Each structure stands twice: as structure tokens, then as C-alpha cells.
Amino acid sequence: MRKMVAALLAAMVLTALVPAARAAEGDGLSVPARAALLMERETGAVLWEQNAHEPLEPASVTKVMTLLLAAEAVERGTLTLEEEVTASANAAGMGGSQVYLKEGERMTVDELLKAVAVASGNDAAVALAERLAGSESAFVERMNGRAAELGMEDTHFCNCTGLPAEGHLTSAYDIALMSRELLRHDLIRRYTGIWMDSLRGGAFQLTNTNKLVRTYEGITGLKTGSTSSAGFCISASAARDGMELIAVVLGAESSADRFAAARTLLDYGFGGWAMAELAPEELPAEIPVRLGRSETVPAALERPARLLVRREQAGAVTSELTLAEEAEAPVCAGDVLGTLSVYVGEELACELPVVACGDVERLTFGELFSRLLGELAMAG
Question: CA–CA separation, 137 vs 148, rounded Å?
Fold first, then answer.
């Protein structure tokens, strides 16, 4: 129970960092798109937004969710990269961007992921969906279920490709949420950073639809999309100086506008924001334990902590550590034993719990009696 409380406290603290990090409304920035948003990946802080919750067609940016479900299946072990998948007539019949799968053709999961991430293959996406859920419709149910779990309240998927369909809508904010989740999987970064590659033993050439992969410093992905009704869209991710950003652009009028808008947002984020490390020299600390089988218990921040701040404030981050004088056994790993108060200048930015790093059992009556006898003998 105490571990759960500590975890909840930590989650509340991280959530509390988000509003403080948000840029001032407007901030002198505009992009040529119906909707756009810039998010810092680690904290989920929204740094800039424009119509971020307007439900719009995402085109092939939809495939961020398709890739996420596939990556999670690989991580669970229910799907392997070496496994071969046989293309159905349905998958082979997909229009739009494709790698021209033929009915009955076999490709490995590794090749299909590459086809989706690099070339935005609709046929490859459907082949993966059918392998994972038996049918595309069943897979779409999983997509919508996962979207709900991620808090994507503006989203309803009708297919796994992003091909136009009535009611197939999401928002810039929701795309950032699923992009953030996808980027937790290092597996996907193997594919989204590829500029050129091939399939079928080199017979079929692939070039990434995300032109920023070739031109933008630190780019890590992620997915483009375009249809006549959706316009030109992108979820672009990039990392520099220990910080990763996600720029979402929906409904741009041209491909050039899409990439220019993403570049503008990423430049704005990297130019204006930084991550400050929170690692006090006093931690980890040893806290005395009363009536415990061990005399002390180590205490530290539950996880490495960083604070997102305006770049000009990075040097003004300070912290103040408050620790319990002692803890009474039993002590469980995760029990809160102190607080790290973090300030930006004179303003309190957040408070982080300091927790026990191990368990200390309470002495039994017999152990306590024996200890007292030993102490008396030594005193005598």
C-alpha cells in the first residue's frame, strides 16, 4: 500500500511539472497548418499549441498507433521480428502508399515494420494488423482501446492505415500522446531513423517519407501522412542535448509547409527550453531505523529526476532536501522518507518524494531482548 502511495505521489509531481513548463499563449509563433502542437517527451509538457484538440483527419500518421501495438506485441513476446507473415488478398488490395505486396507473399515482421515506418505501406500495415488480431476490424478495436488507455479523448480510429473514412479522426494533442508512447520503444527507432533501405533482397527500394530524417539535426522519426481531405500531416520527433521533442502538424497545405512547420516548432523548442538535472549530492542518504533488523535504510529519489525549464533559467535551478530524522521499522521499499523541494529562482517549481530503497523488517521480541542484553553486557 505504501509503495502505491509513493508511486502516486511521484506521478502527481511529474504531472504538476507540465503546466509550469507551458509556453505563454501565442509566444510570437505561428505555423501554416490547421492544428499543431509541440510536446517534450519525458515530461509530456506542452510547449506550444494551435487548435490542439480539434478532431481532424490524421492520414497515415494513424500508423503511429499501428506501430505502437506491434512494438508492444514484440515486447510481450507474442510477435517476433523473424516471424514470417503471409499477405492476405485484403492486405494486398490496399491502395495509396504501399510496398506492393502480392496475395500469398511472405514477409518477416521486421520487413513489414520497416515498410510501415519508412515507406508508409498501407498493405504492410494491414498485414501486421491481421496477424496481430485476426482481422483489421478487430485490430482497430484494439487501437481504440489503447487510445482510451492513453487518454486520447479526441480520437476515433476506423482503420489501421489512415485512408479516408468517415469518423476517422484524432487531434494534434492525441497524436503527441501516442507518439510519446511509441518512442518509449527503442525497437521502433531502428526503423523511423532510416533514410534509404530496401526489401525483397534489394529488389524494392525504400525512401523515408519523412524528409527531415535527412535534413534535421537529431531527428528520431516519426511518421508522415497526407490525403486530399487531411492535407499534409506529420508527427516529427528529434533529440538534442538530452531532450527529445515531438512536433505534430495537421492540415498543412503542402508537403513543404508541413516540414517547415515541424522544423519551426522543433527549433523553437530546442532554442527556448532545456532539461535541468536534479541530483543532490546528499542523495542517496542513510536514514536511521528504530527497532529494525538493520540500523539504517538507504533513501533516494524514486527515479532520476529532471525539470523542464526555459533555457535562460537553467542556471537558476536549486534544490532543498528535507529528510526524516529516523524511520520506525518495518520499512518498505518506496516508503516516503523525505522531500526534495526544487526552485527556479525564488519560485517553488515542484516537490519530489525521497523514498526508501529497501526493506527493513522489525525486530521480533526475542531479537529485541537479545540486543538489549548485548548492550547491557557491553555497558558493564
Answer: 17
Answer yes or no: 120 catalytic.
yes
- Its pTM stands at 0.86
The string of DSSP codes covering 158-223 is S-SS----TT-BB-HHHHHHHHHHHTT-HHHHHHHT-SEEEEGGGTEEEE-S-THHHHSTTEEEEE
For 322-344, write each residue's pLDDT tens digit: 999 999 999 999 999 999 999 99
Catalytic-labelled residue, pool 63, 114, 211, 223:
63
End-to-end CA distance of the chain: 43
Active site residue 63: yes
- In sign, the C-alpha dihedral spanning 51, 30, 311, 25 is negative
Task: Dump pLDDT digits (tens) for 195-222.
Answer: 999 999 999 999 999 999 999 999 999 9
Q: Is 60 assigned a catalytic role?
A: yes
Which of 88, 120, 171, 237 is an active site residue?
A: 120
